[in-house]
User: What shape does this take?
Amino acid sequence: MIERASDGTFDVYCKDEIFSGAGTTLETAKEDMARQMAFYKETAIQEGFKYPAFLDEAYEIHYSVEVTSLLKYYVNSGIFSLAGMEKITGINQKQLWSYLNGTKPRKAQAERIERGFRTLKNDLAMLFA
Assistant: This one.
């Protein structure tokens, strides 16, 4: 999961494992988590304790963005307005504002937001293909 902290930094963490990272940019947060994972494995080997078997294999990390963090990033950075987000997601501005200010979206609403961003991504990919 990727979250944007209130101070503008990024946090990344695994939902099903103990690994996490933080940084001033998304890339530095991802790199921090990768370092933490490598350090954990090295320490486990040195100390003789168990660690997740996937760390011995080639693995990929797939990231998901927490919906409220995604909205805050794009709206608070000025990239999108609430009006623009309404057009992208189909969710009215008043409801989006509440998500930006502490109300957690229901699963169906979170999915609408994600779909809106995926549609925007696909539209941009077609333009720049």
Summary: The chain is about 55% helix and 10% strand. The first strand starts at residue 2 and ends at 4. The helical segments are 26-47, 67-76, 82-89, 93-100, 107-127. The chain has a mean pLDDT of 91.
